């Protein structure tokens, strides 16, 4: 007996379990955009660190963290996020607010939590902060 309807791979997509659309606005931002956003933020942090703080690696990380925490907590994304048309939201669709932004940023700076992803393409830093990165 043949089954009708989509197969398991066709019936699911990143964000489906969170109630997010498959594509378009508010769908889970894909890896390329997210990595490009981090690269933009790191380059900006490196420029600021070299210009104002002598280029010390810890200073660069601090500037990077500040860009992320302030950006995500106030406008829903870092400069790299905004440039690449993605934003960070709480899983329920609301703005993340300051404490989620700080938790998410600290875990992002540790790198490993951000490198461990679930089926919804959320890093452990997003899961622990209760956030998701979506397309604008």
From TrEMBL:
Region annotated Disordered, chain positions: 1-25
InterPro entries the record matches: Pra-immunoreactive, RDD, UCP021697
Annotated GO CC locations: plasma membrane
Swiss-Prot/TrEMBL keywords: Cell membrane, Membrane, Transmembrane, Transmembrane helix
Chief localisation class: membrane
Domain RDD, residue spans: 63-130
Hydrolase listed as a keyword: no
Protein name: RDD family protein
Topology relative to the membrane: Multi-pass membrane protein
Classification via Pfam families: RDD (PF06271)
Locations listed in the record: Cell membrane
